[in-house]
Design a protein that fits this description.
By secondary structure, the protein is of the alpha/beta class. Helices cover about 35% and strands about 20% of the residues. The protein contains eleven helices and 13 strands. The strands form three sheets. The protein has a seven-stranded parallel sheet, with helices on both faces. The chain has a four-stranded mixed sheet with strand order 10-9-11-12. A hairpin with a 3-residue loop joins strand 11 and strand 12. Helix 3 crosses helix 4, helix 6 runs parallel beside helix 8 and helix 10 crosses helix 11. The protein starts with 5 loop residues before the first strand and ends in a 6-residue tail after the last helix. About 45% of the residues are buried.
């Protein structure tokens, strides 16, 4: 019996899409026993990395629409590291819907492609897409909800990598359940990024009996995500997502922290950083004897490759949900892969839940 592929469509052909497409090509010949940084397993539940194939792509940039996906991922303003050549994929980038997806600052460097929005539902059906991934810009509230409606109509699973709340909201959970479709979300949590580092350090403090009194996370970068986030009005859901990812770990211990003593979020756009993110963390607390102490940390990481491996695992978990006719928010994988899942666990608990999920729903391998 031939191995079934996982047909994937991408909304938003930016840096994150580039790293994902490159990663599938880069690791397609990996051996089952190989350790691959950023992936839980080379073969996850019966699906190898090479079983992920791209069915469709959507964007609004006139320099990307009409190009093959293999070319569009290396088209400016994309500026992430090129770590793999990608052969012609035969997947054209279709004209997507704009809505609020193009903000004030992005519109200064991106020109919309002419013509109407393509038939999203028709394309997803025609290409037999299994899973749709959203990489829309931060603040694309209306565009995200519009695309979700198309995805539901097309009968596809959905992975929401952006901070617009879908999987964690009961209304959208019900919509996916009614259609018999799975959703994993919201807001991708990178391999070792600012959020996971912040959560881990906060849990270290709590595990060692420290009180967290004040904390901040300041991030700078030079990709279009950071440029877009100069528009502060688009940051509401992003700040909620990143802040809750950290404060949820304190609240799980039955403790609290004054909202004025927590600041988590993007801080500025530095063009020459390109896709490299700099994160500055500070945690202030008190230990034995009520004596104050503080920790400061600096993280430098290429932003988009940092999330690509996580998305590859999310794709395969989403396909297992389809295979097993699971519907609605897939809670275990969402809790490990996303900043704002329906249920917040510690990252260790969340990883254990994903392993249990794979064991339960993965395809049984022949001995």
């Amino acid at each position: 019996m031939p191995v079934r592929k996982i047909r994937v469509a991408i909304i938003g052909v930016g840096n994150c899409a580039s790293s994902l497409v490159q990663g599938i090509e880069f690791y397609k010949n990996a051996k089952e026993e190989d350790f691959i940084p950023g992936l839980m397993h080379t073969n996850l539940g019966g699906y190898h990395i090479r079983d992920v194939e791209f069915a469709a792509a959507f964007d609004i940039d006139k320099n990307k629409v009409g190009k093959d996906l293999s070319q569009a991922i290396f088209t400016s303003p994309n500026n992430t590291t090129k770590f793999s050549s990608v052969p012609h994929l035969g997947v054209p980038v279709h004209r997507g819907m704009t809505h609020d997806g193009l903000g004030q600052y992005l519109s200064q460097i991106i020109e919309k492609a002419p013509g109407p929005t393509d038939d999203i539902v028709g394309i997803l059906k025609e290409t037999k897409t299994d899973v749709v991934i959203s990489y829309l810009p931060v603040g694309s509230e209306e565009a995200t909800k519009w695309y979700v409606e198309q995805i539901l109509d097309a009968g596809c699973a959905f992975i929401n990598c952006v901070p617009v709340f879908i999987a964690r909201e009961r209304y959208w959970q019900n919509r996916f359940e009614e259609k018999g479709l799975p959703v994993i979300g919201d807001d991708i949590k990178s391999q070792v990024g600012a959020t996971i580092l912040h959560r881990t350090l906060v849990n270290l403090f709590l595990d060692r009996g420290m009180i967290v009194e004040r904390t901040y996370q300041l991030n700078t970068g030079g990709n279009t995500d950071f440029l877009n986030m100069l528009e502060r009005s688009r940051l509401t859901s992003k700040k909620i997502s990143k802040t809750n990812a950290v404060t949820s770990q304190i609240e799980k211990r039955g403790l609290s922290i004054d909202p004025d003593n927590v600041h988590v979020g993007p801080s500025d756009y530095v063009p020459w950083q390109k896709d490299n993110k700099l994160c500055f963390l500070r945690i202030e607390g008190r230990h034995f004897g009520d004596v104050p102490m503080n920790l400061e940390c600096r993280l430098s990481v290429e932003d988009s490759p940092n999330s690509a491996g996580v998305v590859i695992d999310a794709i395969r978990c989403c396909k297992l949900a389809l295979d097993n006719k699971l519907a609605g928010a897939i809670k275990g994988p969402s809790s490990y892969f996303m900043k704002s899942p329906p249920i917040q666990y510690t990252d260790t608990e969340a990883r254990d839940k994903v392993e249990q999920y794979i064991k339960k729903y993965g395809k049984k391998q022949k001995k």
